[in-house]
Design brief:
The structure is a homodimer of 339-residue chains. Chain A is of the alpha/beta class and 339 residues long. Chain A folds into three domains: 44 residues, no CATH class; 129 residues, Rossmann fold, CATH 3.40.50.2300; 130 residues, Response regulator (Rossmann fold, 3-Layer(aba) Sandwich). Helices cover 44% and strands 16% of the residues of chain A. Chain A starts with a strand and ends in a 5-residue tail after the last strand. Chain A binds a DNA duplex (16 and 16 nucleotides) through α2 and α4.
Chain lengths: 339, 339
DNA sequence: CTGAAAGCGCTTACAG
DNA sequence: CTGAAAGCGCTTACAG
């Protein structure tokens, strides 16, 4: 909390009014762009405002109007470029619509998420967009709804029963596309690298297992090597895989970050991705284009996903009675050099 | 702008007061944690608040108190993990101090930056932390100061005359450390890859050139290959370098992103960084640990830099009369496998 | 077309 | 220790 420099009194519409020789209602009307005011008058008002350096006090206006032009955005892991890209798309669309974003980073910490949500609520924001932290209770959407604040959930679903607006991707299909490609190249033993828990992992693993069934290939559970969904994790997972099952020459990764780690482990072992080992990532973050080698991956257009989440939220704000909305990004496989 | 669900009237301190059988002043005092109120009474008030689902209206309170607990954070390029990491450090420290962040992304667009600054001003934030977009006029700090809002500039300086709080790194020294290392390994012809413009490039190039002088090595201007400070740019720069000057076997890059692009171009050419070519990045973003190969780079602790910027801003808010503050991160060379 | 008045939900001296 | 009152800077019917 901070007060303004003492002694300094900011100009208000009353000051503008007195300079322009009108009432403060008139000033307010002009500022809000009402067409009740003749051009001559409104010009005079605007000039007066500029002259005395008047600054619109949005908080006061919003308090009076019981409205808000701020939207709370809660991100679980900003160090993952995927989420940063989602945020970029979201922020841009929101800014275009005249909204400002209150950004909070939970770092996958449920307690922090709770705290942050409470603060956002007290700020009186117009809506919330959230990438829920892992382990977020299914009750979250109901709870936020009960506050009367519009909500969109991004990336991670929250389990069966709850109904809420959601923007995400078809994770199972994405993995199936990657798997089909690898099978098409002749691979039969294909590993799945990375991920510990969460709905997204669940969906991606589903796609992984479904592919074996669809192609009548026997599935070996130990082809799944779990790890933190990070570069470190991907590196460790690939090291373990190479040690345990030398015959495996292909893998799809939980996400691009794990794939980068795996790429690095491959390099350590003197193996070249795309020639000695086929590796496919997931997300298509910007980094994949010029990794070494450029990463083949499943494109779910992170930035666009963020923008779509904004669209859903904006629609919900405008029309609270709307039926539940879902945006599910169609994945596409983008082939580069790694597999 | 959105209104709350119609018909729904949120509880106010007046409601709490009537339930708790006290005056609204008492409620306010309790909520603000005043010790004027006996425990028995404040317990009663808190219970009443919880019972009717009262939510503190921060905007109203702040309007009355002429204060704010929001800080505007303006980021120029959130797609660059370096800035995302700075943001994470900044946000965490600010949140710890009880502040919320209004986040705006300018995408290096000066017009957008101007717009965003105006909006932040109208929101009545307590302070601004900005990574200025390239080409930001030197007058920006003066202008923000004239609004009466505390400011900290991050990462990029704004030129000579202006005085403002700043958190950044010793860029020249960082490059010199990298260069000394390469020279120690026996290299004489060392390229500088990436960057187009801006103060950071200037400083890093200064360090680059100084090293040649210090070691009495002849400096070839065409060893500097400029490019966008991105992976694409780094890739293109390395391709050009490889084509033009086959004798060069070492380079320091403008930043880690360019280094990744260069790594990728090296891979394309069948060259291994760290054995056929020594490559050093700058920033030490998280991605460097497990790139292929792991990138040697100059560590300027992005997350900590963000946290330090928060510290400076918080100090400025508390004590507007403070003399100009600077935090300049000491770089350290971290050697991994690329060079 | 413009002005006087009430009110958004708080905080803060000031009495009592 | 608690209550009545004024006021933060706006907006919005309502008169005129």
């Amino acid at each position: 909390m901070s007060k303004k420099t003492p002694g300094f009194r900011a100009a208000t519409i009353l000051d503008v009014a007195s300079v322009a020789n009108v009432s403060k209602s008139t000033v307010s009307l002009v500022l809000r762009g009402s067409d009740l005011i003749p051009t001559e008058t409104s010009d005079r008002v605007r000039k007066a405002a500029a002259k005395i350096g008047y600054v619109y006090n949005r908080r006061a206006a919003e308090l009076r109007r019981q409205s808000s032009n701020a939207i709370g955005v809660v991100i679980s892991d900003l160090r993952n470029p995927f989420f940063a890209e989602v945020l970029v798309g979201l922020e841009r669309r929101l800014a275009e619509a005249g909204y400002t974003v209150f950004m909070a980073h939970t770092n996958e910490d449920l307690e922090r998420q709770q705290r942050v949500l409470t603060i956002l609520r007290e700020q009186g924001i117009a809506g919330i967009a959230i990438c829920p932290a892992l382990g977020t209770p299914i009750s979250l959407p109901r709870s936020v709804k009960s506050w009367g604040v519009p909500l969109v959930v991004m990336v991670r679903t929250l389990g069966g029963g709850a109904s809420y607006d959601f923007a995400g991707a078809d994770n199972s299909l994405g993995v199936r596309q990657a798997m089909d490609h690898l099978i098409g190249k002749g691979h039969r033993r294909i590993a799945f690298l990375g991920g510990i828990t969460g709905p997204v992992l669940q969906q991606r693993l589903d796609g992984y297992k479904e592919t074996f069934t669809a192609h009548r290939i026997r599935f070996h559970p130990d082809l799944i090597v779990t790890s933190q969904p990070t570069r470190e994790g991907g590196h460790a997972a690939m090291v373990r895989l190479l040690k345990a099952r030398k015959s495996v020459k292909a893998a799809v990764c939980y996400n691009d970050l794990t794939a980068f780690g795996a790429l690095s482990a491959l390099g350590d072992a003197g193996l070249r991705a795309g020639v000695d080992f086929d590796l496919i990532g997931f997300d298509n973050i910007l980094d994949t284009i010029h990794s070494n080698p450029p990463l083949s991956t499943v494109d779910i257009k992170p930035e666009q996903m963020g923008a779509e989440a904004a669209v859903l939220l904006l629609a919900r704000i405008k029309e609270p009675g709307l039926k539940v909305q879902r945006f599910i990004q169609e994945p596409t496989l983008v082939l580069r050099q790694s597999g």
